[in-house]
Write a structure and sequence with these properties.
The protein is an alpha/beta fold. It is 35% helix and 25% strand. The chain has a single domain, classed as 3-Layer(aba) Sandwich (Glutaredoxin), CATH 3.40.30. It is built from four helices and five strands; from the N terminus they run E-H-E-H-E-H-E-E-H.
Amino acid sequence: MSSKNACGLGLAKIRSQHPGGAFMIVTQKGCPPCPPMKRLLKKAVGKRSAIVELPVEDAKCMPLIDRLKVTESPTIIYVKGKTLRRITEGDKTDDQIKASIATIVGGRKK
């Protein structure tokens, strides 16, 4: 599992660098649920998938964030090929978020 900033990379580049799929997490400074969501994602994914971070403060990230139509942080987006799956915190509990991540990780083809 890698955790790195993907700013400056387009969606096509992320797809090509991670053909087995990658989780992107949109974060924002001062966002209370962002650090716990990031920790939860890292724990749930482990070494099974890459994690790339898209902080909204980085201007290089905004074209990709806008293209993905992200309107809240934190937002987790799983990308594999043409497939995009989105998880937002909303009113979900940690267990519901973990279950959503597990469904994605467990359901992806190796």
